[in-house]
Amino acid sequence: MGAGHDHGPAVDDTAGVPGDYRKKLWIAFGITATIVVAQAVGSVITGSLALLTDTAHAITDASGLLVALIAATLMLKPTSSRRTWGFRRIEVIAALGQATLLLVVGFYTAIEGIRRLFEPPDVPSTELLIFGIVGLTANVIAIAILSSSRGANFNMRAAFLEVLNDALGSLGVIVAAIMIATTGFQRADAIAGLFIAALIVPRAFKLMRETTSVLMEFTPKGLDLDEVRAHILELDHVKDVHDLHASTVATGLPTITAHVVVEDECFTDGHAAEVLHAVKQCVAEHFEVSVSHSTFQVETEHISDDEPDSVKHP
């Protein structure tokens, strides 16, 4: 006896019409892509490490917005017998690739920035300031567009953080340009580049850790399986819990499965269905992470004894 759920795409009750979010993402992506082109030209003209780093950062942010846009579209595709979760996990795979790119950019910037501290090149401050202001202005517009919807779902929060982080990078470029113009301190460009790298690398490590945890099907953060087992064992008629597993399919979609051993009489007096309902309600309401997608096999001790020991874990 088990419990199943509709594994179709989740509907965002706060989103209204999904197209509204896609439109905002399209606008933010267009603005960020424009920043990439402008800053790429500026980095060639000025030879600035800070601007080059911010360009690479903007490319990553633009790709992140594009991934958010694609994910927002694919999540609406129906599930099938071949794709029971649809395309929900594509965001995880794409995020892992994004994290890898961020690390490459961050480490390159750190190495090049240290080198330029000892051999600072001449960087034209005026041009650097102009491109920095252009980048910051565009980012502020994108932030204004996304801010009202940043709490709606994971994609919108991620998109908002992308442009916010890029705005900080543009601010670093502007500060470097002003310091070079007022003091002639050419190392300000390298310092700004290192500052941007310091923004990139920690985020990349965090993103890589989170996406790897999902792909490795680790227990969702905030869900203690020992506590889950203890709660289930406290329910009436439950004698044992084994083969307990929990993982995350995609952002906001934790799942849990288990074999729940009950008294033999439960299958004749109707208590088995009550136990199943109680277990489902337990994992959905009693913990920090609410798990609505759950599958439980309710069985007798005799059935449990027939299962090989290798299956009974953890």
Write a structural description:
- Strands 1-2-3 form a three-stranded mixed β-sheet.
- β1 and β2 form a beta hairpin.
- It has two domains: 196 residues, Alpha-lytic protease prodomain-like; 82 residues, 2-Layer Sandwich (Alpha-Beta Plaits), CATH 3.30.70.1350.
- The relative contact order is 0.13.
- The two termini are 21 Å apart.
- The chain is elongated.
- It has ten helices and three strands; from the N terminus they run αααααααββααβα.
- With 314 residues, the chain is mainly alpha-helical.
- The N terminus is likely disordered.
Task: Describe the structure in brief.
The protein has 314 residues and is mainly alpha-helical.
Summarize the helix and strand pattern as letters: HHHHHHHEEHHEH
Determine Rg (CA atoms, Å). Answer: 26 Å
Q: CATH fold name of the largest domain, please? A: Alpha-lytic protease prodomain-like
Structural class: mainly alpha
Biggest sheet overview: 3 strands, mixed
Which runs of at least 5 residues are low in confidence (pLDDT < 50)? Answer: 1-19
Instruction: Report the principal-axis shape.
Output: elongated
Strand tally? 3
Beta-strand residue percentage: 5-15%
Can you list the strand order of the major beta sheet? 1-2-3
Oligomer: single chain
The CATH first-level class of the largest domain comes to: Mainly Alpha
List keywords for this structure.
single chain; 314 residues; mainly alpha; Alpha-lytic protease prodomain-like; Alpha-Beta Plaits; three-stranded mixed β-sheet; 3 strands; 64% helix; elongated
